Amino acid sequence: MEHLLSFSHRCGADPDLVLAGGGNTSLKENGVLTVKSSGCSLADIRADQFVRMDLEALRAIVNKTYPHDDKSREALFLADVNAARLPGETRRPSVEALLHALFSQRYVLHLHPALVNGLTCGRFGARAAAKLFPEALWVPACRPGYTLARLLADRLTPEVTTVLLQNHGVFFAAETEDGLYALLDRMLQILAAHVGRPLPPENALPPADLSRPFTPDHIVYCGLGPSLPDTENARLLYRDACKILFYCQSFGGPHPLRRDLIRFITNWEAESYRKKQG
Ligand SMILES: [Zn+2]
């Protein structure tokens, strides 16, 4: 637990890695998954803001079939995820708790750094990822939560330590805290070298188009335009979108979220829950 708290705090304190509480962490120990709860901030998360879950019960959910309709599927999935919590747990686990469970490694770290999302939101992101990170799995943009976990269920062999999610972010998995940092640092170094020029000062960043968001976080905090909500998180996430726009010029130019995914995120109860907590 100490290590889980220390790497959560360390990543959460770095604005290049975590904005507005985005990202999540987990630990597996003796058949229990301890995962960040939804809507709290990694930078100052406390032990009681993690949710302890029955690892086996959680993993079993990936083999269930749910209705095709978004609303019914997400409601049933949420009920099953909540039922996999250990007795006495009342917090809502991260929307990606199931995916955390499917990795075999002890520690999992999920982040949305702008530098990484320059790659995942670039038009030629998949091609660049195959060249720069041949060991990583690349997942084309899809619905988060159950759909994402289901897509990856048969591909997460114990050798997989890195998963790049198009228009979303990255997952790292390792047996030790140092192993996670090594994966993260290596990726950031390779990407910085590929981009090959420093991020310009804020007033020289390209302006992002709010009607064409890059990731779910941009929809949750910035809305879909034409103007930015007057909150600190909205300003942070808007600047993040501008940074992604700068970085993705090194990966074929911008590839915004698909329209059907924008619609799904906009109507997703799990995201409006997260926004309310933040
Ligand atoms: Zn995420």
CATH architecture of the largest domain: 3-Layer(aba) Sandwich
Based on secondary structure, the structural category is: alpha+beta
N-to-C order of helices and strands: HEEEHHHEHHEHEEHHHHH
Query: How helical, in percent, are the residues?
Result: 40-55%
Please, could you describe this protein's structure?
With 278 residues, the chain is an alpha+beta fold. The chain folds into 2 domains: 2-195, 3-Layer(aba) Sandwich (L-fuculose-1-phosphate Aldolase), CATH 3.40.225.10; 202-277, no CATH class. Helices cover 43% and strands 12% of the residues. The protein is built from 12 helices and 7 strands. It has helices at residues 2-12, 55-60, 70-83, 97-102, 114-120, 125-132, 146-152, 177-195, 216-222, 232-248, 259-267, 269-277, and strands at 24-29, 32-36, 50-54, 107-111, 137-139, 162-165, 169-174. A 7-stranded mixed β-sheet has the order 3-2-1-4-7-6-5, sandwiched between helices. β1 and β2 (32-36) form a beta hairpin. The longest helix has 19 residues, at 177-195. It is globular and about 50 Å long. It starts with a helix and ends with a helix. The model has no long low-confidence stretch (mean pLDDT 92).
Write the SSE topology:
Layout: H1 2-12, E1 24-29, E2 32-36, E3 50-54, H2 55-60, H3 70-83, H4 97-102, E4 107-111, H5 114-120, H6 125-132, E5 137-139, H7 146-152, E6 162-165, E7 169-174, H8 177-195, H9 216-222, H10 232-248, H11 259-267, H12 269-277
Parallel strand pairs: 5-6
Antiparallel strand pairs: 1-2, 1-4, 2-3, 4-7, 6-7
Helix pairs in contact: 5-10, 9-10
The structure holds zinc ion.
The site of zinc ion has 4 residues, from loops.
